[in-house]
Design goal:
This protein is an alpha+beta fold and about 210 residues long. It has 3 helices and 9 strands. A 9-stranded mixed β-sheet has the order 4-1-2-3-5-6-7-8-9, sandwiched between helices.
């Protein structure tokens, strides 16, 4: 799918090239660009979400009720502006931002995923239960130097996907991209991909 560039000027988040320009060189096409240059989670959320309005409506700081009765708040809920082009025209996705520790451990990663899974069991006003995207991608927390296409990361991403957790990541040539099971649902460069074929609704019981 060909995507028209937004009207507003492109602003890089981490030195990545404009996803609406020619295909870049210098790094692998799908290389994930770390989102580590921000002073706070708030700054990261503001900068990342500022790139999405041409394609998504955004609700910030949304509070809902967990199945335990506890009230939980998520950083954002996004919904495609052209939702009729998606497999599920009622699709909406939660987004939770987290600063990656400099020396992230397996414990940091599993707690981050557990928090995101908790959010999949929340009734969000006007939406019900939603799939949740971690930003940056929680799989990047598995440690510096790990190949993001390795089998371990692939298994981590697919298990998270089965639990209703995807990723909002920055890729070298795609720009911002929504991933589920490690596959592109949408990206700035290519627009809707798996989102045309996947309903992006939570599942229970047999898969």
């Amino acid at each position: 799918m060909t995507v028209d560039p937004p009207v507003t000027p492109f602003q890089s988040l981490a030195g990545e090239p404009d996803p609406f320009g020619d295909l870049p060189h210098g790094k692998p096409y799908q290389a994930e660009v770390p989102l580590t240059a921000f002073s706070s989670e708030r700054e990261m959320a503001d900068r990342v979400l500022a790139r999405l309005p041409p394609w998504f409506t955004i609700q910030r700081e949304v509070t809902g009720q967990h199945c335990s009765g506890r009230r939980l708040r998520i950083d954002a809920i996004i919904r495609p502006r052209q939702a009729h082009l998606w497999r599920n025209p009622n699709v909406a996705l939660g987004v939770e931002f987290k600063m990656v520790p400099k020396c992230a451990s397996i414990g940091d990663y599993t707690r981050w995923i557990a928090q995101a899974v908790d959010y999949t069991h929340v009734e969000w006003p006007g939406h019900g239960r939603l799939m949740i995207l971690t930003c940056p991608g929680a799989a990047s927390w598995l440690g510096a130097g790990i190949d993001h296409d390795s089998r371990a990361v692939m298994v981590a991403r697919r298990l998270a996907g089965q639990l209703g957790v995807g990723e909002l990541v920055l890729r070298w040539s795609y720009g911002l991209a929504l991933l589920l099971n490690g596959e592109h649902v949408w990206s700035e460069r290519h627009g809707i991909s798996r989102g045309q074929h996947w309903g992006l609704t939570l599942k229970s019981g047999s898969r």
